[in-house]
Amino acid sequence: MIPVGSKLPDFELIDQNGKTVSSADMIGTKLVLYFYPKDFTPGCTIEADEFATNHSEFKRFEITVIGLSPDDQTSHKKFCAKMDIPYTLLADTEHHVAEKFGVWGQKKFMGRQYMGVSRTTFLADERGVIVKIFEKVKPRGHAGEVLEFFINA
Question: What total of structural domains would you count in the chain?
Answer without folding.
Answer: 1
